[in-house]
Task: inverse folding
């Protein structure tokens, strides 16, 4: 009696082991050294790791780091404007110089080698000349920068010179020339308040677009360029910019509220264009961020993308609705 039962038990044991191994193989082959062990815990562990990933992708960034860096940058900017507005000029020059380096580094990954020295010298010169000499000096310095880039690149030989020179011209305009309009806003006696207004409406565009996009985003605006950017987020950008501009312009630069609303609407459109432009550049270069200098944000250009495009719009609108004095 015992012998048949032991054989039957062994056969049953082999069938169970075979069934468990096959089932384990179909479910992802859990642990080769101990087949079948720990298998029930694996889905739970996987779900636990996937859940933070889903939250991070929903947020789109490391929020604590992004908020901390943003607050720190805001303190530096406001502090420089309160102490002496020339300190703000130094901050703009430094930020754009880093942005030029990041953009040159990114273009280099696709074989476009932008001459660094004339690009940096031209960047600094455009911003300083705009502050000291106005719009005509800014345009003149842009022309001289392009000539310097051309001569510098030709001196290195003719191989790929057209491509590299075109890349240099692009860097001279974006971001350097566009940032010169921030220097134009800073130059008048009330320039510090103009810069605060300009930065405020641009930041409100990002904040409103992010919040409305996370909460209500359903319809992608440009899925092939920026999948997370939605039309609902754009509506949030317009709303927050218009409200913020309508409040800030009368308080800070003594312009009409409707001028502030117009500034906000224009800034929301320009900031979105700047963001999409930067996303297009990064996708074409095959990179996620321009660098990792700013935790939670990426590179300096990842923060300047909206600002440099909004700058000429803000300068023009503020000059029209609240002429400098």
Result:
């Amino acid at each position: 009696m015992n012998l048949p039962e032991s054989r039957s038990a062994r056969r049953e044991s082999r069938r169970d082991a075979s069934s468990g191994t096959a089932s384990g193989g179909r479910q992802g082959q859990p642990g080769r050294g101990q087949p079948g062990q720990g298998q029930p815990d694996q889905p739970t562990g996987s779900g636990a790791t996937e859940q933070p990933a889903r939250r991070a992708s929903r947020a789109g960034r490391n929020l604590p780091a992004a908020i901390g860096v943003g607050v720190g940058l805001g303190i530096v900017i406001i502090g420089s404007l309160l102490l002496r507005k020339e300190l703000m000029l130094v901050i703009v020059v430094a930020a754009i110089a880093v942005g030029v380096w990041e953009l040159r580094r990114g273009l280099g990954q696709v074989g476009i080698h932008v001459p660094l020295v004339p690009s940096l010298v031209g960047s600094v010169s455009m911003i300083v000349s705009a502050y000291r000499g106005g719009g005509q000096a800014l345009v003149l310095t842009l022309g001289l920068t392009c000539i310097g880039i051309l001569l510098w690149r030709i001196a290195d030989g003719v191989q790929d010179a057209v491509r590299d020179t075109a890349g240099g011209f692009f860097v001279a305009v974006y971001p350097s020339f566009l940032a010169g309009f921030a220097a134009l806003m800073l130059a008048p006696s009330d320039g510090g308040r103009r810069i605060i207004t300009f930065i405020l409406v641009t930041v409100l565009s990002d904040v409103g677009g992010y919040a409305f996009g996370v909460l209500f985003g359903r319809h992608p605006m440009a899925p092939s360029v920026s999948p997370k950017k939605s039309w609902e987020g754009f509506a949030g950008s317009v709303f927050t910019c218009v409200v913020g501009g309508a409040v800030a312009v009368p308080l800070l630069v003594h312009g009409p509220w409707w001028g502030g609303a117009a500034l906000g609407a224009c800034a929301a459109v320009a900031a979105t264009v700047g963001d999409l432009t930067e996303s297009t550049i990064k996708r074409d270069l095959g990179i996620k961020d321009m660098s990792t200098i700013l935790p939670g944000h990426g590179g300096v250009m990842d923060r300047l993308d909206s600002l440099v495009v909004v700058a000429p719009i803000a300068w023009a609108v503020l000059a029209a609705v609240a002429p400098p004095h």
The CA atoms of residues 122 and 144 lie 8 Å apart. Confidence is low (pLDDT under 50) at residues 1-15, 17-57. DSSP finds eleven helices and two strands in the chain. The first helix runs from residue 2 to 26.
